[in-house]
Design brief:
With 651 residues, the protein is α+β, with helices and mostly antiparallel strands. 36% of the residues lie in helices and 15% in strands. It has 17 helices and 21 strands. The strands form five sheets. Strands 1-2-21-20-12-18 form a six-stranded mixed β-sheet. A five-stranded parallel β-sheet has the order 7-4-3-11-19. It has a five-stranded antiparallel β-sheet with strand order 13-17-16-14-15. The chain is globular. The two termini are 45 Å apart. This is Fumarate reductase/succinate dehydrogenase flavoprotein subunit.
C-alpha cells in the first residue's frame, strides 16, 4: 500500500516498524528477548532443517552453531572451499569491550562509539546487543585456538582503530580474518563430520523459494556441471556479504556479488540504505586500467603510521627529501583529539580534499603518504615487523617499493557496504523464515562502519544472535512438507532457467567485464565519496542506458550446461545494474550528508557532513515492484533513547 509523495524515481509507502525488540532498559533487552523467545527441544531440532548460504565468518559460525544445536543444516558457497570466503582477507582486528588496557572502555562506550561512528543512522537496540555479545566472541575464538597477539606476560594484546580513543581491537598480526575464519571453519567441519551439516561448495544461489509467504528453500546452480538444483528447508539464512563490487574496483574478492540478497529483494525482502557504501582510506592507489581489484592496507597501520602530504601543491620531491616543516600532517592538524585515527569516512574525504588541492603524491597525484618512519625509530624494526610484517611484505610485492625505506602511498577505495536486506531485531527479513546475517544485512553500522567491527558483527550474528532468535521462528513448526512439484518451486526454477537462457541468447558484441567496468566508473564518479543531486540524476540516466545496452549487446560464450565463468559474471553484473539504480535513487532521495553518504549540498562551513535529523532520521527500506517500475520507500523511524543526537566531532 502506498501513500504520500510520488515522483519519477520512487513512491512513498507505509512506514515499516520493527516489533521484535523488547521494551525496557537497553542493557536488559537481549536477555529479555532470549528468555521470551520460544524454544525448540533437543529431540525436535533433529526434525527441522535450515539452509545457510555463505561460509564466511557469519555463515560458517552460524552453520557450526546450529549444527551443534541439533538442527539439520545445509550450507552453500560459490568458492571451492569454505576457507576461500572473503572474510579471510580481513586484516586488522576484531573489536570487543573487554577493557584489558584499563582505559575506561565498556559495553556502553563501544555502543556509543559505534552509533556515533555510524553518524546516528543505526538502530540503538541492535548496536547495544552487538557490544554486549562482543566480549563472548573473544572467549569463543580463544577456545578454538585462534592465535591472537599476546603481550609479554601472556595476556591478549589490543590496539586502536579509527573513531575511538581506547584500545579494544584484538588481532593476529595483519591476518586476523584468516585466523578467525580458520577457527570457524574448524567448528563447521566438526559438524560436517558429525553429520549435522552438509556443505555444497561451487554452488551459487540464484533464487529464493517462497511458499505461502515464507522462505522455504533456494534454487542454486552447480557451477561445475551447470545443473540447476532446488533445495528445501524450514528456514533460509543468507550470509553472503556485501555489494561493494558494484563499483568494479574495490577491495572485495572479484567473486563477491549481490545476487543472493538481490534475488531475495525481488521476491519481497526489503533492501535498506543501499547508498551507504564505505570508502576505506588506506588502500594501495590505482595503478592503471589493467586492474580488476584494489588492495587494502589495514587500518591498524594508522596506530603507528602518520598520514601526510606536502604543504605546497606541485611539490614533486621524494618523500624523504621533504623536511618536517614542509609536510602537512593534515589529520593531526584538523582532528587533534583523534589524529590519524578518525573514522574511515572522515579520513577518506580528507584525503580526497588534499589531492583535489593538487597536493597528492604518486602517479596522477592520487595518493597520500602513510609513513611509519617515526614509529620504526621509536619502537624499533622488530616491534613494527611483529605487528605489521606481513602487510609490509604485501605492499612491497604489489608496488615494488620497500615501506621500510619509503612511506606507503594510500588512497581511498570502496570497501564495505552498510546497506543490505532489512532485518528486525531477530535478524529476520520482511519475508518470514528468511534470516540475514553479517554484511548482508543493514542492521548495525548505520551510515559508516568503524574499523574492526565487521568481524565482530559476523561472529556475533553467527555464534550468538541468530542461534538465540531463529529458534523462536522454528518453534512455530512443524512446517508442511513442500514438494518439488509445488507451483512456487516450479516458478522459482523456471525463473532461474529463463534468466540463464536470456543471458546466453543476447549474443551481442560486448564482454561482461566491459559493462562491469563502465558501471563502476559511473558509480565512483557520481555515487562515490561525494554526491550531488545533479550528479545522481545523471548517474540514473547513465545506469538505465547501460542496463538497456547490456541486454542488447552482452556477449556470453559457452553454454549453461558446463563450467562457464562468463555466464556466472553476467548474472552478477545484471544484478549489479539493477542494484546500482536503487543505490542512486536512495542517495538522490536522501537530501543530507551522513557518514559515507556525503552530499555536497549538505555540509558544514568547514566541510564536514551535515545531517538533517528532522527529515532523515530513518532507515530507508525499499520494496521491489517490478523491473522498470519505481520502487516503494518504506521508512523505519530511528529513535534515540540512550544516546543524544548531535553532530559528530572528532576535533
Amino acid at each position: 500500500m502506498t501513500t504520500g509523495a510520488t515522483n519519477s524515481h520512487y513512491t512513498v509507502g507505509e512506514p515499516v516498524t520493527e516489533t521484535s525488540t523488547p521494551p525496557g532498559p537497553i542493557e536488559g533487552r537481549w536477555d529479555s528477548r532470549r528468555f521470551h523467545a520460544a524454544l525448540v527441544g533437543p529431540t525436535n531440532r533433529r526434525g527441522l532443517s535450515v539452509i545457510i548460504v555463505g561460509t564466511g565468518l557469519a555463515g560458517a559460525s552460524a552453520a557450526a552453531t546450529l549444527g551443534e544445536a541439533g538442527y539439520r543444516v545445509t550450507s552453500f558457497c560459490y568458492q571451492d572451499s569454505p576457507r576461500r570466503a572473503h572474510s579471510i582477507a580481513a586484516q586488522g582486528g576484531i573489536n570487543a569491550a573487554k577493557n584489558y588496557r584499563n582505559d575506561s572502555d565498556s559495553t556502553y562506550r563501544l555502543f556509543y562509539d559505534t552509533v556515533k561512528g555510524g553518524d546516528y543512522r543505526s538502530r540503538e537496540s541492535n548496536v547495544y546487543r552487538l557490544a554486549q555479545v562482543s566480549v563472548d566472541i573473544i572467549d569463543q575464538c580463544v577456545a578454538q585456538g585462534v592465535p591472537f597477539a599476546r603481550e609479554y606476560g601472556g595476556l591478549l594484546d589490543n590496539r586502536s582503530f579509527g573513531g575511538v580513543q581506547v584500545s579494544r581491537t584484538f588481532y593476529a598480526r595483519g591476518q586476523t580474518g584468516q585466523q578467525l575464519l580458520l577457527g570457524a571453519y574448524q567448528a563447521l567441519e566438526r559438524q560436517v563430520a558429525a553429520g549435522t551439516v552438509t556443505v555444497h561448495p561451487r554452488h551459487e544461489m540464484l533464487d529464493v523459494v517462497v511458499v505461502d509467504g515464507r522462505a522455504r528453500g533456494v534454487v542454486v546452480r552447480d557451477m561445475v556441471t551447470g545443473a540447476v538444483e532446488t533445495h528445501l528447508a524450514d528456514a533460509v539464512v543468507l550470509a553472503t556479504g556485501g555489494y561493494g563490487n558494484a563499483y568494479y574496483l574495490s577491495t572485495n574478492a572479484m567473486g563477491a556479488n549481490v545476487t543472493a540478497t538481490w534475488r531475495a529483494h525481488r521476491r519481497g525482502a526489503l533492501f535498506a540504505n543501499p547508498c551507504f557504501a564505505q570508502i576505506h582510506p588506506t588502500c594501495i592507489p590505482v595503478s592503471g586500467e589493467h586492474q580488476s581489484k584494489l588492495t587494502l592496507m589495514s587500518e591498524s597501520l594508522r596506530n603507528d603510521g602518520r598520514i601526510w602530504v606536502p604543504r605546497e601543491p606541485g611539490d614533486a620531491r621524494a618523500a624523504r627529501d621533504v623536511p618536517a616543516e614542509d609536510r602537512d600532517y593534515y589529520l593531526e592538524r584538523q582532528y587533534p583529539s583523534y589524529g590519524n585515527l578518525v573514522p574511515r569516512d572522515v579520513a577518506s574525504r580528507a584525503a580526497k580534499t588534499v589531492c583535489d588541492e593538487g597536493r597528492g603524491v604518486g602517479p596522477g597525484g592520487r595518493g597520500v603518504y602513510l609513513d611509519l618512519a617515526d614509529a620504526i625509530t621509536r619502537l624499533g624494526r622488530e616491534v613494527i615487523a611483529d605487528r605489521y610484517g606481513n602487510l609490509f611484505d604485501m605492499y612491497r610485492q604489489i608496488t615494488d617499493e620497500d615501506p621500510w625505506e619509503v612511506p606507503m602511498r594510500i588512497y581511498p577505495a570502496v570497501h564495505y557496504t552498510m546497506g543490505g536486506l532489512w532485518v528486525d531485531y531477530d535478524l529476520q527479513s520482511s519475508i518470514p523464515g528468511l534470516f540475514v546475517i553479517g554484511e548482508a544485512n543493514f542492521s548495525d553500522h548505520g551510515a559508516n562502519r568503524l574499523g574492526a567491527s565487521a568481524l565482530m558483527q559476523g561472529l556475533a550474528d553467527g555464534y550468538f544472535v541468530l542461534p538465540g532468535t531463529i529458534n523462536d521462528y522454528l518453534a512455530g513448526g512443524p512446517f508442511a512438507d513442500v514438494e518439488l512439484s509445488h507451483p512456487a518451486v516450479r516458478d522459482a526454477v523456471e525463473a532461474v532457467n529463463r534468466r540463464i537462457e536470456g543471458l546466453l541468447a543476447v549474443d551481442g558484441t560486448r564482454t561482461v567485464d566491459s559493462f562491469h567496468r563502465e558501471l563502476g566508473a559511473i558509480l565512483w564518479e557520481h555515487c562515490g565519496m561525494e554526491r550531488t543531486k545533479e550528479g545522481l540524476a545523471t548517474a540514473l540516466q547513465l545506469v538505465r542506458a547501460l542496463k538497456a545496452e547490456f541486454w542488447r549487446e552482452l556477449k556470453v560464450t559457452g553454454t549453461g550446461e558446463e563450467l562457464n565463468q562468463a555466464l556466472e559474471r553476467a548474472g552478477r553484473v545484471a544484478d549489479f545494474l539493477e542494484l546500482a539504480e536503487l543505490m542512486c535513487i536512495d542517495a538522490w532521495h536522501r537530501d543530507e550528508s551522513c557518514g559515507s553518504h556525503f552530499r555536497a549540498e549538505s555540509q558544514t562551513p568547514d566541510g564536514e557532513a551535515l545531517r538533517d535529523d528532522d527529515s532523515f532520521a530513518y532507515v530507508a527500506a525499499w520494496e521491489f515492484t517490478g523491473s522498470g517500475q519505481p520502487p516503494v520507500l518504506h521508512k523505519e523511524a530511528l529513535t534515540y533513547e540512550f544516546i543524544e543526537l548531535k553532530q559528530r566531532s572528532y576535533a
